[in-house]
Amino acid sequence: MTAIVTDGLFFRYAPDAPWSLSNVTLHVSAGEIVLLEGASGSGKSTLLRVLAGLAPAFHGGQAGGSAAVAQLDLRTVEPARIAQQAGFLFQDAETQMVMAEPLRDVAFSLQCHGMAADQILPAARRALGRVRAEHLIGRRIHQLSAGERQRVALAAVLAPEPSVLLLDEPTAQLDDDTACELVGELRRLADVGLAIVIAEHRHDRVGHLTDRVVGLQQGVLCTAVTHPPLPPLAACTERTGSPLLTLDRLAAARGDTTIVREATAVLGAGRIAALLGKNGGGKSTLLRTLAGLEPAAAGTVHLHGRDITTIPPELRVPLVAFVPQDPGRSLLCETIRDEVLLGPRRLGRDLVAADALLDELDLRHLAARNPRDCSVGERERVAIAAALALAPDVLLLDEPTRGMDLPHRAALVKSLRAHAARGGAALVATHDLDLARACAEDRWELVDGCLSIGVLV
Amino acid sequence: MRAPLPPLLCALALIAIALATAQPLIVAAALIGSFALYGAAPPPHRLMLRVALVSGLFIAILNPFVAVEGDHVLFAGPTFFLIDFEITSEEVLYGLVAGARLATAILATSAFLRLADPDRTQALASRIVPRSALTVALAARLAPTLRRDAVGLRETLQLRGLGPANGRRAAIRQGSLLIEPLVASSLERGVDISEAMVARGYGGTRLTRLPETPLRPSEQAGLACGSLGLAIAVALIVGLAPFEIYPTAGPIFTPLAIGLAVGTLCTSLVAAAVLRSSR
Questions:
Q1: For site-directed labelling of A142, which of A24, A67, A441, B177 has its Cα 20 to 30 A away?
Q2: More reliable by pLDDT, B30 or B120
Q3: If DSSP codes are grouped into helix, strand and coil, which group holds residue A62?
Q4: Measured distance CA(A272)–CA(A393) in Å, rounded
Q5: Please, which pLDDT band fits residue A235 given cuts at 50, 70 and 90?
Q6: Which residues pair with B73 in a beta bridge?
Q7: d(Cα B137, Cα B125) in Å, to the nearest integer?
Q8: Three-state DSSP class for B75?
Q9: Would you give the DSSP letter of residue B162?
Q10: Secondary structure letter of residue A222 according to DSSP
Q11: Who's near A76: CB < 8 A, 6+ residues apart?
Q12: Domain A243-455's class?
């Protein structure tokens, strides 16, 4: 049985805007998993929004052609009714949560669908159990890790038992183990008859369990382009430059809880280290401590041999630059060019070199656009360009590839290697092992709050 | 999953008692009770404790200099503009009572907000005003997210090399840099969550109301304490133990006032103990 049918589907957000989707004809059967691939801004999220009934009903815009989900004609049926058949998991799981506690939040989906009151809580518990998230009941949503939030969001989508599942980058914030579990769960759901469409840049994570891969290029369906994986760093050199950043028995804490204990490591000039570890393992906390955003609970941090442990973050700039997780929410300026040039202007740095980063990270064509009108991956690149524009000695990146397609990840690797070649150093917290292997020589791994140092194999 | 009704009644009772009388003993008992109730709530405690103490002390100190009442002059001084340096014992006493009332209200409200489960509070409120309750629930859900966004924006400023500004003009200029992204970020969050609600089926059929979870014994005890506290407040409102501060303060240590103060104190201490155990 065909669960999703689109015939010659067109869509654009404004009458004078270019078509975001153009002549899209797609059929997805029940029990099938379709992987939607394409560059950032190619229209993947838009297609999912159209299939969920959100565009144009919620976002406005113009649509043409026909589309149906579970035999519901998207041109005539209201979104709330489509939602009963099509569950939509957003890119940022946190944005789709309405209540403050997981069980209540999952129950909200069922309340919206008019389920009998006495059946709601047992059904919500079952849905949480299905994604192995029952143990999260009673906790606060804002205190959950990204992986835990993703599970709760998935439970909320699954609870009303939809026949179609639409997932926008479901593994972007997950570590490998959690992503693997999630993808396995999706396969099981498909095997019992759900039609699933996944928009995802990480082919390596979901590709092996999908039935079909469909490409999307500037809003037009095409054969998926198979990009070669990021090539691993040619030779893993043992050479270490002069020490730039030295951690001596450093303890990093989140609130009153010490997350990283007695971390001792040296990051040399010209070296890049990948900071690995599970979700909630302390990677972000360690990076924030190194950037000066969190006070060190114990131990010291030296930069160029100078103790910077108690120096505030603004005084560590431009020696240290930090791009936090999900930086797209914290961009300050009205255009991408201003955002990238903000730091160099303030510090009296070379604006030409900073401006060249727009080309290096493929942002030139977006330079005059407001960052909030860009996709997650594009915003991520803006934040990285803004950090690189400071020409820092040490660059700290927290999950920099969220929403980023393979060509742009390759561009990021190139920029990082150029930074290292100029004598800089970088510490990159990531779940993306391909990226780690492609750009880093050193492996810093956090396991149970302890930092171990090794060479990336 | 804490029921909202017991802490709501306890907080309301303490605020009502503090506002229903100016009897210093009873107001002091309500203040101590609100401290206990706030202590029973989950941490962190420091911020609101500081807000309550500073606000209360500010009112207590300010009142003798702005009020011009009372018969017993402690210090006779001139009047400059609106500031009166003639201090009477009644002005001091009224200032202390008013400060204690404000601190009680702040601590009791904060205790309720921390002790009650926000989702169950929303469910309770939705029986009366469904849409407004959902709006408030969303605001409560989004508050930590928006705060995090605001902190993220401030941190971005620091990470671009812009530290705390020196001087008022520089601070205003720096602050103005954050206004646009702050507004844009909150609007973006608002649009995101509205979209998510539509995607989850909100607005299609009538929202089913969840059955209320039965109260646990400790919560029932908290409810009883709250009701007792409200009974004391009603007794004070109808005129039991009347007390006037101006022009001359009445006797403070009367048997009735002592009895009501002890009652208030015991009720609130027991309420704090049972609500702490039901956390």
A1: B177
A2: B30
A3: strand
A4: 12
A5: low
A6: B88
A7: 10
A8: strand
A9: -
A10: E
A11: none
A12: alpha beta
Query: What is the C-alpha separation between A40 and A45, in angstroms, rounded?
Result: 9
Tell me whether residues A104 and B119 touch, CB distance under 8 A: yes
Question: Which tokens belong to B215?
Answer: 């109260």
Tokens encoding B2: 């804490």
For residue range B96-114, what is the model confidence (pLDDT) as tens digits? 999 999 999 999 999 998 8
Q: Which residues pair with A166 in a beta bridge?
A: A88, A197
Q: What is the DSSP pairing of strand A72-73 with strand A62-69?
A: antiparallel
C-alpha span between B56 and B95 (Å, rounded):
9
Report how far apart, in Å, the C-alpha atoms of A217 and of each of A19, A37, A210, A214 are. Answer: 12, 9, 20, 10
Q: State which amino acid sits at residue A64.
A: G
In which residue are the tokens 């999260």 written? Answer: A136
What is the token pair recorded at B38?
A: 């706030």
N residues, chain B? 279
Rounded (10°) angle between helices B5-20 and B255-277: 160
Instruction: Report chain B residues whose CB lies below 8 A from the CB of A321.
Output: 159
CA atoms of A294 and A252, how far apart (whole Å): 8
Close Cβ partners of A419 (under 8 Å, ≥ 6 residues apart): A388, A395, A426
Amino acid letter for position A37 = E
Closest residue of chain B to A340, computed from CA coordinates: B160
Residue linked to tokens 């489960």: B117
The letter for the amino acid at A285 is T
pLDDT digits (tens, 9 = 90+) for B171-221: 787 778 788 888 988 888 888 888 998 999 988 777 888 877 888 899 999
All CATH 3.40.50.300 domain ranges in chain A, comma separated = 2-223, 243-455
Residue type, position A139, single letter: R
Q: Are strands A257-268 and A243-254 parallel, antiparallel or unpaired?
A: antiparallel
Q: How far is A140 from A401, CA to CA, in rounded Å? A: 27
SS3 content of chain B, % helix, strand, coil (to 5): 70, 5, 25
Class level of CATH domain A2-223: alpha beta
Q: Do A100 and B140 touch (CB under 8 A)?
A: yes
| Shortest CA gap A212–chain B (Å) | 25
